[in-house]
Amino acid sequence: MSERHDGEREFDLRWADSAEHKEPSARARMLAARWKENPPGPVPFRADPGPVRRRRRSSRVRSARRSSWISTAIVLGSVAAIILLLGYLNFRPTY
Q1: Confidence (pTM)
Q2: For 12-23, what is each residue's pLDDT tens digit?
Q3: Is 93 inside a domain boundary?
């Protein structure tokens, strides 16, 4: 008997969308109450960009870039050395 009632109670989105009155979300209610006391000032759609200055690269950025290349070279060199070592050990003649 309860299974039949559960099927009747299932939420229908079309029914909810056709409601005449829709309650605003909690955030919308909070902002409406806040703006009633303190209305927000006008905000431009897109702010005017300020003057663009070229920044010089700091030594820390250059050293970070340099260290990333060094670490990459060390890893690739280690992998190549291991491959060569394994190849040497497999092709070495056994007596």
Answers
A1: 0.31
A2: 777 777 777 778
A3: yes
Rounded CA-CA distance 27/8 in Å is 32
Q: What is the pLDDT of residues 60-76, one digit of tens each?
A: 556 666 678 888 999 99
Could you identify the residue written with the tokens 């006391």?
37
Please state the φ and ψ torsions of residue 94, each to the nearest 5 degrees. Answer: -105, 135
CA dist 81 → 27, 67, 89, 90, 91 (Å): 61, 21, 12, 14, 15
**Which carries the bigger pLDDT value, residue 19 or residue 36?**
36
* Residues 27/35, Cβ–Cβ less than 8 Å: no
For residue 89, what are the domain limits? 69-95
d(CA 72, CA 91) in angstroms, rounded, equals 29
The CB density around residue 31, as the number of other CB atoms within 10 Å, is 13
**7 assigned to some structural domain:** no
Q: ∠ CA(33), CA(37), CA(39), 5° rounding?
A: 95
